[in-house]
Design goal:
The complex is a heterodimer of chains A (about 250) and B (about 220). With about 250 residues, chain A is of the alpha/beta class. Helix content of chain A is about 35%, strand content about 25%. Chain A has a 6-stranded mixed β-sheet with strand order 6-7-8-3-9-10, sandwiched between helices. In chain A, strands 2-1-4-5 form a 4-stranded antiparallel β-sheet, with helices on one face. In chain A, helix 7 links the parallel strand 7 and strand 8. In chain B, helix 1 packs antiparallel against helix 4, helix 3 packs antiparallel against helix 6 and helix 4 packs antiparallel against helix 5. Chain B has one domain: Methane Monooxygenase Hydroxylase, Chain G, domain 1, CATH 1.20.58.220. Classes of the chains: A alpha/beta (about 250), B mainly alpha (about 220). The interface between A and B is medium-sized, with 17 and 14 residues.
Chain lengths: ~250, ~220
């Protein structure tokens, strides 16, 4: 047990109107680990990720119950600054979402909004973020071309770089490689493994093999319930505690 | 779900049953050839070892194909990796049947000692162990696998008995030095067959429970 988890989810329930989508969830996520949450569609995984930075509130009738603590502080408390929370807990979505502006502008958009105007500082931020997302070598000579002209894999790495430019503490990734070819997927996975040294990474993988490849720990969710969590080896090599986990990951149900 | 995968796993089971049957027959024939001094049968066993090697290759190829195509995890991963290890043990058993048969050929036209009935007993015990270890795998029978592991003591005890008997015969001068070495080798080969059958059973336990085969040794 980690005594000082980065994120601690306590008796967490989530509702859309009257429909409950997450049930009594308790989960600790440690600093500097890649934590994979997987399960069939409709298991509440995307909702969980979006609850971790309160993006889910943008959906009407969404209601959270219970607690999510970031470094021991409740993110649902009244004095939590939501903008600040979303900077600390950044998110990358399944479909790349570059803004229709240049590569450089995409990266510095957030830092600029937060008040950074110094050109050389912005340059440094952009280079660092692009290097961390393993995109720098691809684009360093053409930072001013339209982000939309990049390939899908490059666009997704750009989205990761854009999150990193805000110096987050936690990075949420919701099936970030679902439409990508194996090379782009490998590049993103490689950079995530590097990035966990600085951040805490929570990923909803697009398949079990990705969870097996990169996660330090993993959790299986089914219909809004946490069925099993454990180390990578516990879940993907050793005998599963719950037969539903085994049936799901070996592709025999779902 | 995963019909093709399940089909491949069935195929893997069938191939293992076939290979297990081949080595069981090799051991049974090896003891028969030895006792009856049947040089022809001994030569057939030596030749048939190539087929066992080919079967091992076939099973390994299927395992690699399954890993490539199905990317197994958890129970399936343990199963496929266990089979990859098990076939090595099964193949070694075949080699030992050949080793015994080579001595049989070498010992042709010599007078065998009369009172070595414990060697056939070793053969019988190891045939049983091999058969049951494969059966434990196919039927996913943990209890049976553990029985095989425990049964290895019987074979080890028989080896000690044979060793003692041979020493006694040397003392009484009823066995030549050459023969004594040949028969102790034969007994040792059967003892090794028992060890390989035990390994197979241990891989069955790992496949079923995820408990590491070598973990106990590492702790010591």
């Amino acid at each position: 047990m980690d005594r000082n988890p980065k994120i601690s989810i306590r008796d967490f329930n989530f509702f859309f109107d009257k429909k409950q989508v997450i049930f009594d969830l308790n989960l600790d996520i440690s600093k500097n680990e890649i934590f994979a949450v997987f399960g069939p569609a409709g298991s509440g995984i995307t909702t969980l990720l979006r609850a971790l930075n309160r993006l889910v509130e943008m959906t009407s009738d969404a209601k959270a119950q219970g607690e999510i603590l970031l470094d021991g502080k409740s993110i649902y408390s009244e004095n939590m600054n939501v903008t600040d929370l979303r900077r600390k807990v950044g998110m990358v979505f399944d479909v790349p979402t570059p803004l229709p502006i240049s590569i450089f502008e995409n990266i510095v958009y957030g830092p600029r909004l937060s008040g950074i105007r110094n050109k050389s500082e912005l340059n440094d931020i952009a280079e660092k973020a692009l290097r961390e997302a393993a995109l720098w070598d691809d684009v360093k000579d053409r930072l001013n071309i339209a982000a939309m002209s990049l390939s899908g894999g490059q666009q997704q790495r750009l989205c990761i770089a854009r999150v990193l430019a805000l110096k987050p503490e936690v990075v949420l990734l919701d099936r970030p490689c679902s439409g990508l070819d194996p090379i782009s997927t490998a590049k993103i996975e490689e950079s995530l493994i590097q990035l966990k040294k600085q951040f805490t990474i929570i990923i909803a993988p697009h398949n079990i093999q990705q969870a097996a490849r990169i996660s330090d720990r993993a959790a299986f969710m089914l219909l809004g319930h946490l069925i099993e969590e454990g180390t990578n080896e516990d879940i993907f090599v050793k005998a599963n505690k719950d037969s539903r986990t085994n049936d799901y990951i070996t592709g025999r149900f779902g | 779900m995963r019909l093709k995968f399940d089909e491949q796993l069935d195929q893997l089971n069938n191939l293992l049953i076939e290979m297990g049957g081949m080595v069981e027959k090799a051991i049974a024939d090896a003891i028969k050839a030895l006792i009856e001094q049947d040089v022809e049968l001994a030569r057939t066993i030596i030749k048939a070892d190539d087929d066992i090697d080919l079967k091992e290759q076939e099973i390994e190829d299927l395992c690699l194909k399954i890993i490539l195509q199905q990317q197994p995890v958890a129970k399936d991963l343990r199963l496929v990796s266990s089979v990859l290890k098990m076939v090595t043990d099964i193949e070694r058993i075949g080699d030992h049947a050949t080793d015994i048969s080579e001595i049989t050929v070498f010992l042709a036209n010599t007078q065998h000692p009369d009172d070595l009935e414990h060697i056939p007993q070793m053969a019988e015990a190891t045939i049983k162990m091999v058969g049951k270890s494969i059966e434990a795998f196919v039927k996913k029978d943990l209890v049976l696998a553990k029985e095989v592991i425990a049964y290895d003591d019987v074979v080890d005890d028989l080896f000690d008995v044979v060793k003692y008997e041979i020493i006694e015969m040397i003392k009484k001068d009823s066995l030549s030095g050459d023969q004594a070495i040949d028969f102790i080798m034969i007994a040792k080969y059967f003892e090794r067959i028992g060890d390989h059958a035990t390994n197979i059973a241990e891989w069955v336990v790992f496949s079923l429970t995820g408990k590491g085969k070598h973990k106990d040794h590492q702790k010591k």
